Amino acid sequence: MKKSKFLYPFLFSLFALGACSSDDDSGEPDQGKEPVNPPPVEAQPINLADYDNGTGVMMQAFYWDVEPRHEWWNVISEKIEGWANAGVNRIWLPPASKGQSGGYSMGYDPSDYYDLGEYLQHETTETRFGSREELDNLIAAAHSNEIEVIADIVLNHNSGGGKEWNPYVQDSTYTLFDEAHGNASGMFNRTWEDFHPNSTSEYDSGYFLGQDLDHDVQHVQDWLWLNENSVAKYYKNNVGFDGWRFDFVKGFAPWVVKDWMESVGGFGVAELWDGNPNVLENYIEKTGISVFDFSTFYKLDEALDRYNDLTYLTQDMLWKTHPEKAVTFTANHDTEKDSNEDNFISKENKLMAYAYILTHPGYPTIFYSDYENPAFQSQLKQLMLINNSIANGEVEVLFADNDEYIMKRARTASNPGLILYLNLNGNIKFKEVDTDWNMAPLMDYSGNIDYTPTTDENGNVSLRAPANGYAIYSIMK
C-alpha cells in the first residue's frame, strides 16, 4: 500500500484559534458545568502520514447498474492512482465474466466464466464493464499502484444456457452450456448432470431450480478450482486477480470455499448475509476466510437510524472477536438499491457510520458512490488517513448512552491512539473522560470542531462533539 500523503491544510489552522465560545445547551444533568474554553495553544498537529499502521481500506469499485455501459473498466482505471494516495490497498470489482443479460448484466447471472469481454454472445462482445483488454489495463494500473484486485465470484448458480430435458426435474431446464449455448469459450461446458438435482444428488437450494451448481460433482470441482485451467487458477494466473469475494455463500457448503482457497490462495471474503455474529464466526472457523461484517452493519443501522440509540454500538459484533477477519462496511451495491428499504443507513448518518468503522478494528470497505459523493469525499479521505495511521491499540468504550458514544484506541509505544466521540444530539455535547495522555494538547483530526483542550496531569480532559456529528481526538506535538 502506498503511504498516504493526504493531510488537510485546514487542520493546521485549528490550533492557532481559541476554542469557540458556543451556545452549548446539552440539557443533560450528568454533563456538569460547561468547562471554560481553554486558551489557544502553540502546539502543532502530528503528521498522521508518519504513523503507518499497515491496515489499508478496500474500495468497492462499483454500484448497481453502473454507467456508462462498456466503459466501466476505463472509468476505474482513471481513479486508481488517487485511490492509492488516499490509502486504498484493495479494490473489489463486480463479476467480470459474461452474464445472461449480456451488455446489461452486472455479472451476477454468470454464463461463460471465461468470457471476460472477448466473445460475441448474449448479443455483445464486451461485458457491461468493457473489454478483456480494458480489464487487463485496469489490473495492471492497480498493481503498479500497489493495489490488489478482488474478483467477485458467483458459484451458486448459472444462467443463459440452452434448454435440455432434465429427468430429475421432469421438465426442461436451461442447463446446456457449450460453444453454441452461452459458453462460447468452450471452457467448462456443462449439462444437467452438473446441476441440482441430478443422478447423484437430489439437493436443490430452492433458489435456482435446475440451475444450482452441484459442487459434489468432480467435473464441477475440476473446472471451478482444481485443474490448472480452472476458473480459479485462470483468474489468478492469467488474468491477475489477487483474491476473491464469494457471492451468496448461503447457497453452497463452506467446504467449497475452503477447497477453493487451499487450491489458489489469495485474500478471501464471503458475503454471508446474516447479522448474527455467531453465524459469521462459525463460517470463519469452517473456511478460514474473512466475512463481511453484517453484524456491525446492522448495529450501525439500529443505532443511527432505527432506534437513535448509540448503546447498540456496545453490543456483540464480529470485529470484537475476529477483528482480523471482519470486513466492515456501511453500504454496498445491494443495500443502496432504490428498492431497498430495510437495509440502508441514511445519508445524514452515513459519515458517522464511516467514522465508526474507520476508527474501530476490522478491515473497512468504502462504497464507490459514497466516496464519489462531493459532500462526503473530503471527510472520507481524512477518515481513511486516520484509519491507516492512529486507529491503533486496544479498544475501550469510555461512555455510551442514547446520543453519545465515546471510544478510545489505547496509546502504544509507537502510536498515540485516538478517541472517537459520536453525537446524535442536535446540540454540541461535552464529556470529561480519562485519556492515555498526560498534560497533552489535543485536537480533533476530523476537522469537525474547533476545540483544542489540554489534558491534566492525570490524563483527564473535557472533550466536545459537534451537533449530529463526530470528532476524533489525538495529541498534538
From TrEMBL:
Species of origin: Salinimicrobium tongyeongense
Homology family: Belongs to the glycosyl hydrolase 13 family.
InterPro entries with a match to the protein in the record: A-amylase_thermo (IPR013776), Alpha-amylase_C_pro (IPR015237), GH (IPR017853), GH13_cat_dom (IPR006047), Glyco_hydro_b (IPR013780)
Pfam families: Alpha-amy_C_pro (PF09154), Alpha-amylase (PF00128)
Identification of the protein by name: Alpha-amylase
Region (Disordered): 23-45
Enzyme Commission number: 3.2.1.1
Signal sequence residues: 1-18
Superkingdom of the organism of origin: Bacteria
Domain Glycosyl hydrolase family 13 catalytic span(s) in chain numbering: 56-411
GO MF annotations in UniProt: alpha-amylase activity
Matches recorded under PANTHER family: ALPHA-AMYLASE
Cofactor needs: Ca(2+)
Annotated keywords: Carbohydrate metabolism, Glycosidase, Hydrolase, Metal-binding, Signal
Matching CDD domains: AmyAc_arch_bac_plant_AmyA
Keyword Hydrolase tagged: yes
Keyword Isomerase (UniProt): no
